[in-house]
Amino acid sequence: MTVTTAPDTLAERSTAAPLRPSHKMVLDILIARQRHGQAELTASEIREALEQIHAPRRFDKGWVTGRLDEMRDAGLVQQSEERKLNPLTGKTSHLWFIPLRQARLCA
Hints:
Layout: H1 10-13, H2 21-35, H3 43-53, H4 61-73, E1 78-85, E2 92-97, H5 100-103
Helix pairs in contact: 2-3, 3-4
């Protein structure tokens, strides 16, 4: 599945200070997936989408979780208490989503 985003992203519509480009990349993935009905994603799913869009660039999962942690601290994303099982690895991962107060900007 190819993820595309419209030019009017949450990052561009936000009244907060400008986002770092790395935060905008991750946030755009969450926005695009939310617009297509997938409101919560794991860091691995976000990494896979980033690699698909920015090929041949590779992204480390630690890099993605670092950006998610920074954005969580800034109130741009939230981490769900629920976890999702990865069928390939058998490990569970936290789900990330855009807070309800900002979700209306993604519609």
